[in-house]
Amino acid sequence: MSVKVTVHELHEQLAELLDQVIKNGSECVVQRDGKDCAVIVNIRQWRRRAAGQCLDALGPSYRLSTAKQARAEQLLAAKTRRSLAAKERLELKSLLREGDAIMLRRAAALDPPV
To answer: Tens digit of pLDDT for each residue in 1-42?
Structure first.
């Protein structure tokens, strides 16, 4: 949920607006002359967005392809309904292993050694 305020309202209600942003994660859109000009967001949301943008910029080797992701989800769903065939188990294991490797590369990219 986002709240829109004018610059004048922001000056008058800054403490209350910050409390709302911090407590419930709402966004505060600041308007000047009737146009959106800034957004106040919770620091966790901002960091999450920044991290997502950083990871997206790394390219396709830092994510499972859409087809592989869909297949992994399909196999996991099937596994909840029935026993997977041996070939399916091996395929799922391979996809999960690849996903784990990607997650480790993504984590390393977000936290490079000092």
So the answer is: 688 999 999 999 999 999 989 998 889 999 999 999 999 998
Q: Which CATH superfamily is domain 2-41 in?
A: YefM-like domain (3.40.1620.10)
pLDDT in tens, 41-74: 988 888 888 877 888 888 888 889 999 999 999 9
Domain boundaries, the chain: 2-41, 61-110
- Where helices occur in the chain by DSSP H, the ranges are 7-24, 43-57, 66-81, 86-110
